[in-house]
Amino acid sequence: MTxxxxxxxxxxxxLTEVSPQMPADAALRRYFVQHAYLGPRxxxxxxxxxxxxxxxxxxxxxxASLQRQAxxxxxxDDRFQNHPASxxxxxxxxxxxxxxxxxxxxxTPAWLQQLQREPALxxxxxxxxxxxxxxxxxxxxxxxxxxxxxxxxxxxxLFRTAQFHHGDFEIQDLASQLVGLAAAPxxxxxxxxxxxxxxxxxxxxxDQMRNKGLIWATDRSARRLQTLKRRASRAKIFNFRSTLWDxxxxxxxxxxxxxxxxxxxxxxxxxxxxxxxxxxxxSRDDVRELAATxxxxxxxxxxxxxxxxxxxxxxxxxxxxxxTGVADAFSAAHPELASEPVSGPAESGFLWPQxxxxxxxxxxxxxxxx
Length: 370
Ligand SMILES: C[S@@+](CC[C@H](N)C(=O)[O-])C[C@H]1O[C@@H](n2cnc3c(N)ncnc32)[C@H](O)[C@@H]1O
What we know:
By secondary structure, this protein is α/β, with parallel strands linked by helices. The protein has 14 helices and twelve strands. Bound molecules: S-adenosylmethionine (SAM). The site of S-adenosylmethionine has 18 residues, from α10.
């Protein structure tokens, strides 16, 4: 891709707004609200060039103007996409990610190369409707990993489609869909989605439950739960109750659950392909603090499982301190819970971006003895 001068100018203006407090995606959203005249094609080109800048940031000449740096980044990206071998794995390990990451995970060439590619856009069709949705939208490819998942390669604004307004699909990454499938709730059960956020996984659990039974959807953020309610109403999902819970000992209910999902706050290393700015704002301290939060959340909810109930821990990160570090510490502290294998393509709990063309994710599952 070559960028025209106007794209480079917009990119440079947005880059001046980006900071640790103003992530690139938020800066883009705000800029597009302020520049409503920009059409979908221009928006796509500008977003792409902002993200390419952060993917190749450590290769750029910091003394050059931001326009020039954005142009350099696009040149590097073109070369890499056409000849991935033109950038050596050692160079990727040194420059595509911050140095602290190598203490937390193995930096394989396959993962590093995947980080420098455009991320895929995944849809989740309503149960059994993927074929019909693909025919209606076009540019959709199925995957053997999830029957309702579609890889969308078209360019239309999906939020403006009739299918979206009708609740026929959600935009949800394949790795997130695999978390819902690993939870595998049954119709009529009672589940707790303890970090429900905007409800991506709540809606998937509800679909698997055929809208029957009950999901307690809790989060510390009222704003996110509001979005969850809007999404649920569009999807005509009614078998949930949402309420605030910030992870403290004051549990939201005395209910005992068939299943609990803790889709915990995490460092997000698994999303660094989609969200490259976060590579440069996430620190080792974040990893340490978030691992402690994840373990605390698991410890707090564990007593709310029914005998035979299942606990699912998921994080969209790949660091050892979170993932296996948390899962091992939790297992050691809870002999009443037995670890269970994770269904689907997870390798020892890990979903790898380079294998799935999706976010990286870690899943662990336990069952309370009956
Ligand atoms: C990974 S996101 C959840 C995404 C959501 N499950 C989905 O699929 O759309 C993690 C969520 O945990 C929430 N959170 C962070 N700290 C928390 C805490 N201490 N207690 C409860 N929720 C917390 C955040 O507000 C955020 O919505």
